[in-house]
């Protein structure tokens, strides 16, 4: 399977800060979560992620979760126990995990990207960005069936750029051998964004033979 995801992954980073604010240190008047979002946006724009950018998001996670509390939160999530915390802190932690997961994805560290997305989705299963990122990592880890499940979940949450999620699921379905499903998703992606060339390029590889009427 070739690496075709590139620009097809979306992240909460773009909703929080611009790439121009990227830094591995907390700027005056800023906070670690904003830095994490900024470096994730910058990495996505550049197509690569540095150690310092991953470290910025790790710092954001530690600060948002109160340092040692991160270990306790993860332990409770993995054990299935109920976790209680203020909504604002909950959202900050989930966003930082999403953004660090994207950085790992950019570095082809797929197991780490999946792990971070798992935490974000455990905190809130209605985060399309986490589902998309985990699906992308699963697809690159040669687990297309699991990736398809994540992309389907993301589609149900109706994220921005829905055509890109259909395109991602089409690739997963094609790798699964579901040729009809892949064609349908490429076609849906093209219909949602007729100006986007990639779905049309993929559709050109298919030949559709109409079914003969039953006599």
What's this model, at a glance?
It is built from 11 helices and no strands. The chain has 215 residues and is mainly alpha-helical.
Can you give a write-up of this model?
With 215 residues, the protein is mainly α. It has two domains: 1-69 and 76-124, no CATH class; 142-207, Serine Threonine Protein Phosphatase 5, Tetratricopeptide repeat. It has eleven helices and no strands. The chain has helices at residues 13-16, 32-46, 51-64, 69-79, 87-106, 110-123, 128-140, 144-156, 162-176, 179-192, 197-203. The chain starts with 12 loop residues before the first helix and ends in a 12-residue tail after the last helix.
Number of beta-strand segments? 0
Q: Please outline the major beta sheet.
A: none
Share of residues in strands: under 5%
Number of helices: 11
Counted up, domains total 2
pLDDT < 50 runs, ≥5 residues: 1-30
Give the overall pLDDT as a whole number: 81
How are the SSEs ordered, and which strands pair?
Layout: H1 13-16, H2 32-46, H3 51-64, H4 69-79, H5 87-106, H6 110-123, H7 128-140, H8 144-156, H9 162-176, H10 179-192, H11 197-203
Helix pairs in contact: 2-3, 2-5, 3-5, 5-6, 5-7, 6-7, 7-8, 7-9, 8-9, 9-10, 10-11
Descriptive tags:
215 residues, mainly alpha, Serine Threonine Protein Phosphatase 5, Tetratricopeptide repeat, elongated
């Amino acid at each position: 399977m070739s690496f075709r995801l590139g620009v097809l992954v979306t992240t909460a980073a773009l909703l929080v800060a611009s790439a121009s604010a990227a830094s591995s240190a907390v700027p005056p008047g800023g906070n670690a979560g904003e830095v994490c979002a900024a470096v994730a946006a910058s990495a996505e724009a550049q197509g690569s992620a540095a150690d310092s950018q991953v470290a910025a998001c790790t710092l954001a996670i530690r600060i948002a979760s109160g340092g040692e509390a991160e270990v306790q939160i993860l332990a409770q999530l993995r054990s299935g126990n109920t976790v209680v915390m203020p909504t604002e802190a909950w959202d900050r932690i989930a966003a930082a995990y999403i953004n660090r997961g994207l950085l790992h994805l950019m570095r082809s560290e797929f197991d780490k990207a999946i792990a971070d997305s798992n935490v974000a989705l455990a905190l809130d299963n209605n985060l399309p960005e986490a589902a998309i990122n985990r699906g992308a990592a699963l697809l690159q880890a040669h687990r297309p069936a699991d990736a398809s499940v994540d992309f389907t979940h993301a589609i149900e949450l109706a994220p921005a750029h829905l055509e890109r999620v259909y395109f991602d699921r089409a690739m997963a379905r094609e790798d699964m051998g579901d040729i009809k499903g892949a064609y349908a998703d490429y076609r849906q992606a093209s219909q949602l964004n007729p100006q986007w060339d990639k779905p049309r390029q993929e559709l050109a590889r298919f030949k559709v033979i109409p079914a003969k009427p039953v006599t």
